[in-house]
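Reopening this ticket.

The earlier resolution said the output was attached, but the attachment link was broken on my side. Pasting everything inline this time so it's all in one place.
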Amino acid sequence: MSEQERVARRTRQVQVGPVKVGGGATTVVQSMCATRTVDIDATVAQVHQLARAGAGIVRIAVDNEKDVVALREIRGQTRGIALSVDLQENYRVADKVAPWVDKIRYNPGHLHHIEKSKTIEQKVEWIVGVARNHGIALRIGVNCGSVAPAFLARFPGDQLTALVESAVYHSALMERFGFDRFVVSLKDSDPAKVVLANRRFAARRPDVALHLGVTEAGLPPEGVVKTRLAFEKLLAQGIGETIRVSLTLTNERKHEEVLAGLRIVEDVAAGRFVSVPDFGRGLNIISCPSCSRVENEKFVELAQRVKEMTAYAARHRLTIAVMGCRVNGPGETDDADLGLWCGPTTVNLKRKDKKIGNFRYDEVLPRLKLEIDRLITQQADRI
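Inline output:
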């Protein structure tokens, strides 16, 4: 993309609290708290930890009324820092969190879960009204593992097109309701799909600011490599106004997401492109970024143990997904050869979308190895 084309794609600017996104502003690096939102002291400390590392926007998950109450106190102790909140599967809490944040993220693929008598348009119009009344921004966050059923039905067998069309449709809804203070994200765990989806959307809507992310990039350093594969291509083409590097990290290391993001932005701006290995030719471990939705803190340790245990299978083309909560667990393990969906006390082990069984955290690895060995044998038999 030429410099002329880059200028032509300059997006409108979106104000997120004290931070400007798009419209020629510096690329904003953001992150998400991994602490439980109800743990006010820990969450406040992590908001400041991420901000000190250079995060322009910090996101917090809200799951229930207790989280809403905690959010109000968290806001009181984090003045001056742009806060975003994730609505998860319950868009109805938007009006309760709006007074205490600068941006709300909703997932179009989760709007059908509740109040089924209402249309998607009615629900989006209500969210827009909340944002307008409180003077805050919105993010339309479309994810590969939770694309709205209506779009999957319209584009059977073509999840990428369904992802893009969902984002285009919701952008149009925003404007139908007279609201333009929004950004869009189109995320996948495959860097190549992230590049394709964002290029397609940017071509269709060059005016809309984009939040870039490779969802469930996994453990460092591999997770940083996966993210670079997408970000270097997109940022170099002028696509992407705010970014997040989604890594599986313990709480005390969560700021490393921010440092990795800043480094990528700096390198691309300076024309320094890191040579990265071809992705997808061997073992691919997907794991979601640790956040307040994680239902058992052993999840991060389990992801690390999976990485160590599976080293022997590095040359085999297998995808293993390790997910930490009910939001990412069910849908985003369906496409993996083997998936571990971590609950409060047990781990759901899956083969594609078929459940194998529930296992304790201390007993799941031997069964996982058995399943990996079976898949390796099946691959060998097909050669």
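Reporter confirms the inline version is readable. Confidence is low (pLDDT under 50) at residues 1-8. Residues 364-382 form the longest helix (19 residues).
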